[in-house]
Specification:
heterotrimer; A mainly alpha; B alpha/beta; C alpha/beta; B: alpha/beta; eight-stranded mixed beta sheet; four-stranded antiparallel beta sheet; 10 helices; disordered C terminus; C: alpha/beta; Rossmann fold; 12 helices
């Protein structure tokens, strides 16, 4: 039995060093991470590389919607209003990533706090807290968003709020499950036996030990958020002019699919590749941080 | 007159079981069933029994990690209630615990030094950095750990080293009673001996009282002044260690002692009594819980649960037969 | 019948690839098991006692490499042809583990699992399989065997489950049973019963390898004992001789550190200072030298090899000197 306890010590200690090593060995995840970094750099630097601005109409073109060409400087072509697609795609990527990161951050903070508290306290408190989550889950969020949009008008902050309000629910459920399991671990019992106050136990012992799972699911939440935002934009509820997002670009491009296919293909490809890379990275992180696999 | 640190009276702890029927009362599992226990300052009391006997649950109830359904716990004369935060905090400064899994009882995200420091600050309030470093360092040294190891994480240390760190964490606040819940059961034999010696030394040096819970009778014999034997949540025998090991009175105690394999091939071990029923079967009526396995069971055992009673020499037994014939074999 | 060894291991090495490089779990281990005898392999965590047999039977975890020779009834198990090993494993060589739930499937009845062992291999038909299941359950002392056949593992107690797991192993009437810490997770009264079961099987002619760290259990059943430390076999002897006069300082220290009920209380338990070397970090010379009470200078420089005399082998410089001088 001593031997098996020793073995569990080796696998249990998935501190960041071991996890980093495992991640480094995962080629798909590393490639995905590199791709995401490249994409972020492109999104930040891309607009600077092009002489055109986001909403600048190039009147010299005829027709206004022109396909990609190296000659006239519109490397991704233009949209139906003559605006350079290269710059728009990269600004759109910036906005999509920003929305995704902020909304994910909001859902992580609220979800972890809610889930860790519910899971650790257990009993009736847990029951009520998770009933709230269940009820919110059941609400049709699209109606929710539409009503908010109608009442408050469209703004970027509203998007964050709407997405964050939905995103934290899953995170809370996941964290609550982990916290329930952690509650029975002997080091948590030892902390209670020391007389540590509950909030300190949650903050110092529960939350740091769920971080691994949280990171994994946050990485997997980002693509969901981007998709959701794209969906909102597709419906016309997302970001408004002059800002643009990948979703909006896809929506606009879909209208011109037959006559100007590049308008759909370029933003859709960027979107798809970004989501794919995020999913690979998320999988890789999960494998690295969960030592029980292989 | 030595002070009675802990007095437990009629403690009962029950857990709700999953329902098997939609209607009707919910089934309960009685883990601890009307247990009395006293521990005086400086004494080491051993609590032995097999899996499912309730010894860990009893420990957790004493540590106020679990709320009892009935009974009282008194710490140094004052009753301790599960919802009395101030009283609990006062008790926790003097009553600490070491658990079974050495690595699992330490937070994997904290170094051992941080774990011990956290204990120090929880029990005595915030400390000046230098003073707390010194206290933690000397505590680590006292349990036999090189103070330079304070920055190591649990998964970087061996089982024995982790258990020493856990002991350091438990003792840094200088408690009066240390509860050891199978504290050496997960260690290799040679390391177990080291930790048992450490506990004995610390006891002597600080006048520490121990509640030593274990299924390993030989270790208990080595460390404890007094032993209580638990079966199905009840104390079936309690006596000074010498008396219990030399002349056990309850049939269960005798069966336990007979079953312990000593490292001597010459000793002939006769076949042990066949398993009459699954040991974990709960007995839901008023008779003696052990009667399903007991060679002495009779009609009296089926109808009436025996009470824990003594013959005046500090040796208590809960058996209709055990008292009449001490050490018959 | 020839009195040759049923199971013979020669110079076995088990290596694992870890992030920190190659690590040796077992080094140059040699031992043998004869028909109808119980060999106990004793060691603490990290001694390699489990890996030795997992390696011989081809059950190592991913990344494990085994070298050397393991012969069962004259046939090489570790050769390039894996047929002898696959033929032997599960029919003539069976294994029992610490947690019986490793062998028992939770959603099948005991009867079904026992019968499958022989039905899958086409050894018996359904009726004969059932008859043998009952017979085997009786031989392991399972109370009410008829009823057990219809029960699921979770309805049995820990001791009954371990009996069922042993019964499963005995279904094919194997010649060798390897039991890896079969009693460690059990209560002491149940442990005594399980040892009784193994003893009964041994008395009926089964060769048993008992891997354990519990010297009390060893004393109850073993005919011969092999002691392992840091991946090597450091002593083998007849059980009685090992307990009466251990030759290797580690064996002596291990025996001395076990608290017992049958001797008067000593003042302190005798532990062994320090801890076993981490795999991959063994010192030059004898691996036990840093902790040894009888250490000599030569122990730090040169590793003692296993030397045999009559029924006993020891790998120790100090023991050899003593044997030469004293006797």
């Amino acid at each position: 039995m001593a031997g098996s306890i020793r073995a569990s010590a080796m696998t249990e200690g998935a501190l960041w060093g071991d996890a980093r090593r495992r991640l480094r060995g995962n080629r798909a995840a590393i490639a995905a991470a590199a791709f995401i970094v490249a994409l972020v750099l492109a999104a930040l630097l891309g607009p600077l590389a092009s002489p055109y601005a986001v909403d600048q109409v190039d009147w010299t073109l005829s027709p206004l919607a022109s396909p990609p060409s190296l000659a006239n400087g519109h490397w991704f072509g233009t949209d139906s209003n003559g605006r350079d697609l290269f710059v728009r795609v990269w600004s759109g990527t910036q906005v999509s990533l920003l929305v995704a990161l902020l909304a994910t951050a909001v859902s992580v903070v609220i979800g972890v706090a809610w889930g860790a508290t519910a899971g650790y306290l257990g009993g009736r408190v847990d029951g009520w807290m998770m009933r709230v989550v269940d009820v919110l889950y059941a609400l049709p969020y699209m109606f929710f968003v539409i009503i908010l949009t109608v009442v408050f008008g469209r703004s970027l902050w509203l998007i964050f709020l709407a997405i964050g309000a939905v995103g934290w629910l899953t995170m809370a459920r996941i964290v609550r499950g982990q916290a329930l399991a952690l509650r029975q671990r002997e080091f948590v019992l030892a902390a209670v036996a020391l007389g540590l106050p509950t909030r300190r136990i949650i903050a110092r012992h529960i939350v740091p030990n769920v971080l691994g799972t949280v990171i994994v699911y946050a990485t997997l939440t980002v693509p969901q958020v981007i998709l959701f935002e794209s969906f909102l934009s597709f419906l016309g509820l997302g970001v408004q002019e002059p800002l643009t997002s990948l979703g909006r670009l896809v929506a606009e491009g879909a209208l011109e699919m037959e006559t100007a296919p590049w308008q759909l293909l370029v933003p859709a490809s960027v979107l798809a590749l970004l989501l794919l890379a995020l999913n690979f990275l998320g999988d890789g992180l999960r494998d690295a941080l969960d030592p029980r696999l292989g | 007159m030595t002070e009675t640190l802990l007095r437990v009276r009629n403690l009962t702890v029950r857990f709700p079981m999953p329902r098997t029927r939609l209607l009707g009362p919910r089934p309960w599992l009685t883990a601890v069933n009307g247990v009395d226990l006293e521990i005086e300052a400086g004494r080491a009391v051993g609590l032995v029994g097999e899996s499912g006997c309730g010894k860990s649950t009893l420990a957790r109830a004493i540590l106020a990690l679990v709320a009892p359904q009935a009974g009282t716990i008194e710490w140094r004369g004052r009753p301790v209630r599960h919802d009395d935060a101030t009283g609990l905090r006062r008790m926790r400064r003097e009553l600490q615990v070491v658990f079974q899994d050495p690595v699992g009882s330490l937070d994997p995200r904290m170094s051992v030094g941080e774990s011990v420091t956290e204990a120090l600050e929880a029990l005595e309030g915030a400390q000046a950095a230098a003073a707390s470093r010194a206290r933690v360092g000397s505590m680590l040294a006292e349990v036999g750990l090189d103070p330079a190891l304070h920055a190591r994480y649990p998964h970087e240390l061996s089982g024995g080293q982790c258990q020493r760190a856990a002991i350091a964490r438990a003792l840094v606040g200088r408690p009066k009673l240390l509860v050891c819940d199978e504290a050496v059961s997960a260690l290799d034999v040679s390391v177990q001996a080291q930790i048992v010696n450490l506990l004995a030394d610390l006891r002597r040096r600080h006048g520490l009282a121990l509640l030593f819970i274990s299924h390993n009778l030989a270790v208990v014999r080595h460390l404890c002044d007094e032993v209580a034997v638990l079966y199905h949540g009840r104390v079936v025998e309690r006596a000074p260690a010498a008396a219990i090991f030399a002349a056990p009175r309850h049939p269960y105690t005798r069966a336990l002692l007979a079953a312990v394999p000593d490292p001597d091939p010459a000793a002939h071990r006769r076949g042990v009594a066949p398993e009459l029923g699954a040991a974990s079967e709960a007995v839901a009526d008023d008779g003696c819980a052990y009667r399903l396995r007991c060679p002495l069971a009779d009609e009296a055992c089926r109808t009436r649960a025996p009470r824990l009673e003594g013959t005046g020499d500090g040796h208590l037994t809960a058996c209709h037969h055990g008292r009449a014939r001490p050490a018959a074999d | 019948m020839a009195d040759g060894a049923l199971f013979e291991v020669r110079d076995l090495c088990v290596q694992f690839a870890t992030p920190r490089g190659r690590v040796n779990a077992v080094r140059e281990a040699s031992l043998e098991v004869r028909r109808g005898e119980c060999l106990a392999v004793v060691g603490e965590s990290g001694s390699g006692k489990s890996q030795l047999f997992l390696g011989c039977l081809g059950l190592l975890a991913a990344g494990g490499v085994v070298q050397g020779s393991a012969r069962f009834d004259g046939q090489e198990l570790l050769g390039p042809d894996s047929t002898p090993r696959r033929a032997a494993l599960g029919t003539r060589v069976a294994m029992v583990f610490q947690d019986p739930m490793n062998a028992l499937t939770p959603h099948l009845t005991i009867g079904r699992q026992l019968a499958e062992v022989v039905l899958d291999r086409g050894l018996l038909d359904a009726a004969a399989a059932r008859a043998r299941s009952l017979a085997v359950l009786e031989s392991v002392g399972m109370p009410e065997p008829e009823a057990r056949l219809r029960q699921y593992p979770h309805e049995l107690s820990g001791g009954q489950r371990q009996r069922a797991a042993i019964a499963m192993a005995l279904m094919t009437h194997p010649d060798l049973l390897v039991a890896d810490e079969p009693t460690t997770a059990l209560d002491v009264t149940v442990q005594a019963q399980v040892i009784e079961v193994l003893r009964g099987a041994r008395d009926r002619g089964l060769a048993v390898v008992l891997i354990t760290h519990d010297m009390g259990v060893v004393a109850g059943i073993a005919d011969r004992v092999a002691v392992m430390y840091a991946g090597r076999i450091v002593e083998t002897a007849l059980a009685r001789e090992l307990f009466d006069s251990p030759a290797h300082p580690y064996t002596a220290a291990l025996l001395a550190s076990v608290p017992r009920l049958d001797t008067p209380l000593a003042g302190r338990l005798v532990g062994i200072e320090g801890q076993p070397p981490a795999p991959g970090a063994e010192p030059d010379g004898c691996a036990f030298a840093p902790r040894c009470a009888s250490v000599l200078d030569v122990c730090h420089r040169s590793r003692p090899s296993l030397e045999s005399r009559e029924a006993r082998s020891v790998a120790c410089h100090a023991a050899r000197l003593e044997a030469g001088a004293g006797r």
